[in-house]
Amino acid sequence: MINANRPIINLDLDLLRTFVAVADLNTFAAAAAAVCRTQSAVSQQMQRLEQLVGKELFARHGRNKLLTEHGIQLLGYARKILRFNDEACSSLMFSNLQGVLTIGASDESADTILPFLLSRISSVYPKLALDVRVKRNAYMVDMVKSQEVDLVVTTNQPNSLDCLNLRTSPTHWYCAAEYVLQRGEPVPLVLLDDPSPFRDMVLETLNAAGIPWRLAYVASYITGGTRGR
């Protein structure tokens, strides 16, 4: 039930977009470039937002803008509000969108986030046909540049493409329950063959820690066979 004595506040979407940009980029200068405004305009917007909600949203730490407890609380709602606003606008504008959307997907994304994305796309654009092409992560950039696909879902962020971060996934080390790492012995690894962002991450981590390793099995695909070494 709404308390009649408490005024309802309508949050401005432009203020929320700038707020999210500052939260993500940590400085007014970087956020200003992201939202195509001047740094002073961003500063004024954040002052207006703080006045609107009646709370301090940022704690100054040098040049960086860190969120206060209230800022963190608002950030979650701001992301949801903007997402629902953008989804509503897209749904109304492109509800009759027809044709074929060709999507390239890396092996890793095909087994994780891709099914959810395909379901959402189909629900919002029921008349849109989807053509999905699964290949190794290394081929994603070339597939876009050669116009073989309209977009790609990949597990890293190529610098040569405009990217949207959909989620951050944790990474873990796995071994057999009975395996015991012997001090000084090379760690036997099961990896994808080169090039692979996960392979690079594993080897860089071990090398940085000074831990010896050896390739025990190498696979061309996650679901493919392996070859011993």
From TrEMBL:
Signal peptide feature range: none
Xref: InterPro entries: LTTR (IPR050176), LysR_HTH_N (IPR000847), LysR_subst-bd (IPR005119), WH-like_DNA-bd_sf (IPR036388), WH_DNA-bd_sf (IPR036390)
Keywords of the record: DNA-binding, Transcription, Transcription regulation
Limits of the HTH lysR-type domain: 11-68
An annotated Gene Ontology molecular function: DNA binding
Domain of life: Bacteria
Family assignment from sequence similarity: Belongs to the LysR transcriptional regulatory family.
Function field: Not known, does not seem to act on the proton translocating NADH dehydrogenase genes (nuoA-N) which are part of the lrhA operon.
Name of the protein: Probable HTH-type transcriptional regulator LrhA
